[in-house]
Specification:
Layout lengths: L1 E5 L5 H4 L7 E4 L7 E4 L15 E4 L9 H6 L3 E3 L6 H16 L2 H9 L8 H8 L12 E5 L3 H12 L3 E5 L5 H5 L6 E3 L2 H7 L2 E4 L13 H5 L5 E5 L8 H10 L2 E6 L12 E3 L8 H21 L19 E8 L4 H11 L3 E10 L2 E9 L6 H5 L4 E7 L1
Parallel strand pairs: 1-2, 1-3, 3-4, 4-5, 6-7, 6-9, 7-8, 9-10, 10-11, 11-12
Antiparallel strand pairs: 13-15, 13-16, 14-15
Helix pairs in contact: 3-6
């Protein structure tokens, strides 16, 4: 029986995919075999030695200590694309919120309560305070053309916008899914120079922190409108507040509000609603559950953020799954362990991801007999046998 710990409420359509004869789903377990999480902070958690994997029901994994997990042989999964449509739809809303003072107008309208027949006249008199602009004919610049950015690019074309995108990691599949009218540039400065609207759709890491700052904002058109449905830390908070107050940025719509941006005129702060749709939560839960089951039961890795994806069928007696550092000569030592133990390797596959690698041996014979020998090989982190 495997224990699956849920740190947040996970949609039942996902947790119900686990066979109750094999899995126990719980929100209280000190030694889980796997964890399902959404936004709970995990950096201060102590992980039990038996923890095999963590599945994030969402795309970003900033709440998970990924590097520490890798060192401990814990596979971290995310669910890319599962919430892409939900975020895309909110980003469309963000385009309009950046153009029209809709939140302010709605709040003002509520203050007219109690004025009876005068409300209509008051509306007509006051509505000019909330005039805005249209998005048709304007240029939208997208930093990131992945699952979300690509979808938004195509919708913006249909809405009559000009679209320019930048993505140094643009995949062939993502490129083929873009409408031909989308202009792709290899120079991010083109986004700043040409765009009336800029929307961020890139991951947050040490290299992308403060992508939008006083220097990049200086390259933008005066009155540019900025959308951030990716991560709050991509935008320097002090610099964006200063830019909004000066008018350099006409509106900033952010789905990751921090204290600095709250209460600032022309900053629309949304409480992280990007993936908060019933469909998105269901999609993420289903994908996360399937990833965990595939890894636990078959040793196959799909959608990992810290180890290479690798899938291989079992044709022999067992699969020996090895997480190790990506160093020269290690596989020779591992196969020597098999030979010394009288184990025949029917098939073997190994893939690396930066400094780490994942190797699977499909073997005939008593795989358990050579586990200790493989674990003793220098730079091997974790070994598991699946029969």
């Amino acid at each position: 029986m495997y224990n699956i710990l849920t740190l947040n409420k996970i949609a039942a359509i996902g947790t119900s995919r686990f066979d109750t004869a094999k899995y126990n789903i719980t929100d209280d377990c000190a030694t889980p075999d796997a964890i399902m999480v959404r936004s709970a902070k995990m950096h201060d958690m102590e992980f039990a030695p038996n923890l095999l994997a963590i599945a994030r029901a969402g795309a970003g994994v900033n709440n998970i200590p990924v590097e520490d997990c890798t060192e401990k042989g814990i596979v971290v999964f995310n669910t890319p694309g599962a919430n892409a449509n939900a975020v895309k739809e909110l980003a469309i809303c963000g385009l309009l919120l950046a153009s029209r003072k809709i939140p302010e107008a709605i709040n003002w309208a509520q203050t007219l309560k109690g004025n009876g027949e005068e409300v209509g006249k008051m509306v007509e008199k006051g509505k000019s305070n909330f005039a805005g602009c249209e998005i048709m004919g304007k240029t939208l610049g997208l930093i990131g053309l992945g699952a979300i950015g690509g979808k938004l690019a195509n919708v913006a074309i249909s809405l009559g916008m000009n679209v320019i995108g930048y993505d140094p990691f643009l995949s062939v599949t993502a490129a083929l899914n873009l409408k031909p009218q989308v202009k792709v540039t290899n120079n991010i400065n083109d986004i700043y120079a040409e765009s009336d609207y800029i929307s961020l759709h890139l991951p947050y890491n040490k290299d992308t922190k403060d992508t939008i700052n006083k220097d990049t904002l200086a390259l933008c058109k005066d009155g540019v409108r900025l959308l951030n449905f990716a991560r709050g830390e991509l935008v320097n908070a002090a610099d964006i507040v200063e830019a909004v107050n000066s008018g350099k940025v006409a509106r900033y719509v952010v789905d990751f509000p921090g204290d600095e941006v709250l209460g600032v005129d022309n900053i629309v702060a949304i409480p992280h609603l990007g993936a908060s749709s019933e469909e998105s939560e269901d999609n993420c839960a289903v994908m996360a559950a399937d990833e965990l089951m595939e890894y636990i039961e078959n040793g196959n890795i799909v959608n990992s953020v810290n180890l290479p994806n690798l899938s291989m069928a079992k044709t022999g007696d067992a699969k020996i799954c090895i997480i190790h550092r990506n160093v020269e000569g290690l596989l020779t030592k591992v196969t020597a362990c098999a030979a010394d133990g009288g184990i025949n390797i029917e098939n073997m596959e190994s893939k690396s991801r930066k400094d780490y690698a994942y190797t699977v041996l499909d073997v005939l014979g008593n795989a358990d007999a050579i586990v200790d020998a493989i674990k003793a090989v220098e730079n091997v982190i974790a070994v598991r046998v699946i029969k």
